[in-house]
Amino acid sequence: MDVYKLLTLGPGLVWESMLLWGLFALVFLYLARTHAHRLLFGLSRVLARGLRSLAALFWRLRRRSQALQIEMLDAAARAEAARVLTRDFQRLADVVRKELGEYPSLHRQASEQIVRIERDYEASVEIPPAPPDWLEAVDAVAHTADGADPALARILDAMHSTLTRASHDALEEYRYASRKRHLLLRRAASQWRKTAGILDRMDRTVTELDDRVALADRHMAAFERIRREPPTAGFALQLRYLAHFVLSLLMLGGFAVLAAGELALLHLPLHHLLARQPEALGLGLPQIAGWALVAAPVLLGALLLELGRMTRLLPGLGALQVRLRAQLMAVVAALAGVQIVFVAALVAYGSPPVQAAAGAAVSVGAAPVFASAGLSILLALLLLATELPFEAALRSGRQVGMSLLVALLGLFAMLSRILAWIAHLAGQLLVRVYDLVIFLPLAVDEAWTARRLRNRAAGAAGTERLES
């Protein structure tokens, strides 16, 4: 038999060569068993330690991320509480300046009304007229005997007529005085109602001021509580930020639809007017102009919202003086109005005429023109408020991103720990598999070792018997 062919898997000796090499491999694996075990245990131990170190690193990063998230929540909560508290104080100052600033005038009006009411009341006191002193004398003379002198009778008749006229004049004067008193009392009633209205207005102002002060006190207590006890990143708080973030994204998606509609309205007029213009930056001039006209109301609306302190992405604009901010808002509003009118005119009158089948232009009427112009104006006005959901998405997105980062770091740490445990078990499993591969030499070795131990034990027992 050729040894070379046997060792090189020659033709006709494939199985014999494989059997020989298998025996060589078993002998080699058996001789390298101890070192192989050390190598497998060492590799599994190194891999497990590395994964445990990676898990510890992930846990440390997670703790730092949680601390950073709590700091962000604390800062956001303090900023929100400070903003609410500032708004309450501003409203309180407006109430004091607007309502209580008129208190001296209201007090003067109430004092004047009270003085008028007192004067009219004093003038309306009923004082019955006193009868003249000579009435008793005239009455005594009038009841004299009927047989008196005719001249005396004429005198008495004249006196009776004079007395009747005097009584009638006194009655008329009394009626006039009563009517005047009634008029004064009627005017006093209206003055009472006016005074009651003034006092009711003052009561509403004081009540509103009291409510504002109570609300400011509650917000101040909440602000102090936030300063003493920073908020924790609880599940409810994270869920609220997630809801705000999702809602903001949905609103941004709606504004993206509005921008796409505006761009669709501008597509045909711009291609009709700028189709022969050269390209810039690999894009046609109609596309660039369309995107610019759509982005213009978004940017101008952002400036208006920043100057009006409705958003706070650019705090420098909100920190300007009131007069300067008002002037800038007027300028930006004027630019926005001009841009919206220009886009509406472009959409309305920049489209090419509709061609009929024979090639002649067909008039489409004024209704589609006004409809497209009105739709363009409506979309542009809605695009002015794009920064509101964008700011909300940024503010809530930071908290959602930190929560997601904390969750991912915790997940990676758990996976690293599981992989370290798997690596440790894999080392033991590979050792068992290694011993399973070389089970035949191991069985022979174990049998030989056991026989040698038995022979040694038997020899020792025989020696003991001989010595005894």
From TrEMBL:
Membrane-spanning intervals of the chain: 12-32, 245-268, 288-307, 328-350, 356-384, 404-423
Q: Which domain of life is it from?
A: Bacteria
Sorted alphabetically, the keyword list is: Membrane, Transmembrane, Transmembrane helix
Q: Protein name, please?
A: Uncharacterized protein
The record lists the organism as Acidihalobacter prosperus
